Amino acid sequence: MRLHSRARIVPAAAAVCALAVVLAGCSGTTKNDTAEATTPGASDAKADPSAPIKKGLKIAFLPKQINNPYFTILDGSGIAAAKELGASAKEVGSSDAKASSQVSYINTLVQQRQDAILIAANDPNAVCGALKTARQQKIKIVTYDSDTGKDCRDLFLNQTSSEQIGRSQIQNIAEQLGNKGEIAVLSATSNATNQNTWIEFMKDELKKPAYKDMKLVKVAYGDDDDQKSFQETQGLLKAYPNLKGIISPTTVGIAAAARYIGGSSYKGKVVLNGLGTPNQMRKFVKDGTVEQFSLWDPKKLGRLGAYAAASLASGRITGAEGEKFTAGDLGEYTIGKDGEVILGPPTVFDRGNIDDFDF
Amino acid sequence: MSALTKYLRWDTAVGILLIAVFLAGTGTTEGFSDTANLSAALDDTAEIALIALPMTLLVVAGQVDLSVASMLGLSSALAGSLWDAGWTFELIVPVCLLAGALGGLLNGWLVTRIGLPSLAVTIGTLTLYRGLASVALGDKAVADFPEAYAKWARYTETVPGTFVPYPVALFAVLAVVAAVVLHCTGFGRSLFAIGAQEEAAHFAGIRVKRIKLALFMVSGLVASFAGIVYTLRYGSARADNGVGLELVVIASVLLGGIDFDGGRGTLGGAVAGVLLIGLLNNLLTLNDVSNEIQVIVTGLLLVASVLTPRVIATLGERRHRHAAAAPAK
């Protein structure tokens, strides 16, 4: 019987292989012979800067995940700003940071006939199909925090320029370390668009002669999961005994890393810097675990999002380069290349100013 | 009384609940019964639904395959890396399917030849296949699949004259096949026999090992096919595609009244379970019910699906004993 069953599997596998070979012979489509036709980001519609902001617009925020403190603040501020503009706004999303969950939310938002969707994409490609369908239904798409492909959205609101963030992360920690020593990066997920771009700029900054005594030994991924980030920090410090500093450019990662370092013998010996929120990091700054960290103000990003979405949905802007729009008390913004709008440079928080911020 | 227990079967109840959710959604929620929404909601469950079919057969036979989502990820990663290397899509598909069948073969071999429990084996291969996926594609994402292929997986493209997207249409066909196999053939009866009493089935002349091996291979094959559907549907091949999906599949199957101990359940129930979770989540999302509440609702349904059949069985038994004790009229 043993022989019998094997005798059946082998021909079956052989048949599949043969089929594969035959199909390979046929001229199929490969990566090389598909010319990707990309539709331009901005629509043909003309912008009317004097158009009034429409009342009763429906705006939805779709963060990477809900119950993430950073997005709770950002979306909350955006929703409040939208209300000031006479729009109704809400935050929807899943508690897992998955692109597949975001796609089902986009589909239901289309069904609910929202006027604009603001999304922080978990995967720049996976949400694109659904976003394109939404755009065909005249729904305006604004990405914030993490961008998608250019042809899947109208505008991308960048917290600061990626270059500014990446380089400043190195500049800040280099100053703390006196331009010497091994450093590591504790990132979010390995697919996060923004994180990877920043890390590229960090690596580029490190090539400058001023940093010849500094070395990036490892990029670890905590998946924006508190426990995993905590364990990765522990792992980094064990694996690299000469490690002098950790940069964690993610709010979940830096807090977890601070919790580990603060409770270990590395406290005061290893410098932790990165991107965090003042409320999350306050106690670590006060107890000396962390000297400084930086971040843009998510409340401002949320407000900018609401104004950008409302301006798009009212026809004041179309997303074309050079168009201008005002975002209330934040002032005037100009749309840059590829529909990108930059909020402004990041703020450094330390013992001196941290109590001025509550988010 | 037998009529009551007959009609109160859990899988029938899930079917009724499915219809009730659909009617309630149509009546209360604008846009719910739009064909575009139904297409999207159905398409969203495509991979889960496909994998649920072999999973139903496995669970009926007292087995489980926890490696399906990892196999989906491996198939996706393989498709991505081969596409990146310039292979034709027509060649990528059979290679991925072959990988799925081999993965299933390994599961089946470990279960039948080494004699390990399927739960333990597939927890191991869950990690193994996900690891292989990371080796195949690393942390890259491959996204430039041509529209000519991608459109077949998306909800915007439907079988002409219906609102059924192609992956769901394929699922419907396979579901009928699976239902016939499970309920109308000797092979199907063997699965129930194995699930109820493996030893007895063996001595009754059922080729238990060979059947189990075949089931695991089919499970791997379907999971790898679902990986291709997933990759095209989201236009993104990644090693971490479908993480955690195995639990949703098993939850849907159990919700459909398939007994986790094996030997009991209907394929119709499993299909109803899959569709119920999909439609219910869609309906709740359209009504702006938060994700946390959705998770709780699904959890409660699951607990009910495990509890209710037992409660009914106990009640039926008690009545039966009562009836037997009473003097005949």
Automatic annotation (TrEMBL), chain A:
The keyword Cytoplasm does not apply. Gene3D superfamilies: 3.40.50.2300. SUPFAM superfamilies: Periplasmic binding protein-like I. Residues 59-316 form the Periplasmic binding protein domain. GO terms for molecular function: carbohydrate binding. GO terms for cellular component: outer membrane-bounded periplasmic space. InterPro entries: Bact_Solute-Bind_Prot2 (IPR050555), Peripla_BP_I (IPR028082), RhaS (IPR013459), SBP_2_dom (IPR025997). It is found in: Cell envelope. Residues 1-20 form the signal peptide. It comes from the Bacteria. GO terms for biological process: rhamnose transmembrane transport. The keyword Repeat does not apply. Keywords: Signal. This is Rhamnose ABC transporter substrate-binding protein. It comes from Streptomyces lunaelactis.
From TrEMBL, chain B:
It comes from the Bacteria. CDD domains: TM_PBP1_transp_AraH_like (cd06579). InterPro entries: ABC_transp_permease (IPR001851). One of its GO terms (molecular function) is transmembrane transporter activity. The chain crosses the membrane at residues 91-111, 168-192, 213-231, 267-287, 293-312. GO terms for cellular component: plasma membrane. PANTHER family: ABC TRANSPORTER PERMEASE PROTEIN YPHD-RELATED-RELATED, AUTOINDUCER 2 IMPORT SYSTEM PERMEASE PROTEIN LSRD. This is Autoinducer 2 import system permease protein LsrD.
